Every structure is written in structure tokens, then in C-alpha cells.
Amino acid sequence: MPWQSPTLNQLADMIRADMRGRLPDAKPALRRALLRVVADVDAGAVHGLYGYLAWLAKQLIIDTAEAEWLERWASIWGIRRQAATAASGEILLTGTSGAQLLEGTELESDSGSLYTLDETVTLDAQGEAIGTVTAVDAGSEGNLDAGETLRLVTAVSGIDGEAEVGADGITGGAERENDDRLRERLLDRIQRQPHGGNADDYVRWAREAHPDVTRVWVFPHQPDDGELTLRLVCDDHEDIIPTAEVITAVEEHIDEVRPVAVRSLYVLAPVPVAQPFEIRLTPDTAEARERVKEALSDYLAQTAEPGGTSYREQLSGVVYIAAGDSRHEMPVPAGNVVRAANEITVLGDITWL
Fold this sequence. Notes:
The chain is an alpha+beta fold. It has 8 helices and 16 strands.
């Protein structure tokens, strides 16, 4: 049976009992007795040691180790915690034709995040130029949507004080890898030994290339013999489709570690296809609707894959379990949901009948 550490009171009682056994005339149970105080002090010290041993026991097992101990375990297998990455992207600069904005110039977003210009740019005859900026601080807070505004920290002659984020946004910023993700990669490394470039190796390489990568699919001999295609998603974001920065990071990392036997490697972001649903619940409640929506979203996030099939019976079963006391009908989808090679199913609108 599992070990159960004694409580503080149990330890105090055990020490008093030991005192009575060794000193027959002693009365350590008396409220103001010196031996009672000694027993309580000793019990507190021993209880602290039990607590430390319980914590230490967790650190000695990989699946329960924390922070620094987890990193030490991971280092034995050559795995390092992924650092936060800085967001980058293009911006549109305007002003007087021929004016220059120098490399390293700082710009600021509405949220206060700072960015620096990667290379010196010169405005063209129309008074415009495209520049690339990188966030000063790594992390997801540096990501910006297309059309947002950056402002020059210091005014520059001939350059308008505001710049517009380009159509692709400023992306690629990610937080430092957390303990759960690091532990998952470590256990995967232990359970799936390297094999010189098999499918499991490519999954591992893709996931260690960028903190945002969560699921990876390997398609050998696509689009041609001797070639390899990877498709991947980033489930921790509202939009699971990876950005260009993530794709580039995966390509560059795998190119450094993959076998030379692979003629060509393609890393692709699958195309999300929203699957609509029509559902009737009886009885129909707001709580039941929310449970069904969350359950379908979670199910697709775990099972949908490029070129895969979502079976209607399984989707209906998800609704049945989530609905609880409610009965349901699901006219849409009317059959299995089948996707093309580069498509992945995501939850679309739910029409409640």
C-alpha cells in the first residue's frame, strides 16, 4: 500500500510515547511539561523533513519533476527548454521621398511594446517604403494584427510619426516553453527512440523548433518519391494555423538535423476548413449548448488532421455525452466529414434548431 507520511500531531504523539517508554516516570503529556515542549519542537522539525522528502520524491520521477529538476532530467537526453521568441514582421512607412529611417530605430505600439527596425530603409518616389521590425522583448505580447499602428519613439525628419503593420501582421512571438510542454517532449523522447530520420524523429524536430508547435503530421513521398511533407498546427492559439515565422523556424531547424537522404523537405500550414453543425437539443438549455460547443471544439482539436475523416457517428457521440440529460438530433453534417490532403477540420458555426 502507498506510503502515508504521519501528520504533525501524530509525530508529536509518537515522540511523547517514546519518551514515556524511555523515562517511565516522565509525563510529557502534561500541558506545561518541559518534555511536552521538547516533543512538539522535535515533531515540527521531523514534519519538515517528511515534507522535504515528499517533495524530493516527486523530483526524482520525470513525470512529476518541477522546473529546475525537470530541466536537469531533460538535459540528460539532450533536450533544452525552448526560450521565448521575438515577434517580427513588415510595416509600411510613409513620408518625404528619399528620406531614410536608420537600422535600429525604435517604434512603439499602443500597448507599449517596443520594436526596432532591422535594416535601414529609404522612402521611394511615392514617399513609401516597407521595413521589417523585430520586437525588443521576446514573447507573445509582441504579436500585432495587420493594420495596427506603430509610432516612432523619436521623431525623424522626413518620416511620418506613424507606421502601419503590414498585411501579414507582426507574428512569431511566443512565450518561454512551460513545464508541461517540456515534460511532454522529454517523455516522447524517452518513449520514441531516435531512428536516424523516421517519422517520429521529424515530429520531434518540428516540435523542438518553435514553442508554438503542438501537433505535427508526416507525409513521406509527398509530393514525389524521396520527398517529405510536414504539416503542423499550433493549438495554443485561437487560430491554430502556424504563421510564416513558425514555418520558417521549423524549416531551418530541421534542415540542420535531418538526414541528407531526403531529397526535398516541405513544411506546410494546413488550410482550415470550418465545419458547420445543425443541432437540436431536447430540452434545450444555454448550459447544454455551451457544453456541446466546447466538447466539439476539443474533439476536433484532438482528432482532426490533414486529409483526415471525422466520422459522423463519433461526432454525434460527442454531442450525446456533452448534452447530458438532453436528447439531440444532428441533421448537419449528414455524413462523414472528409478533407483533402492539405485541409484540416475546425469547428464552424453551430445552428441550434
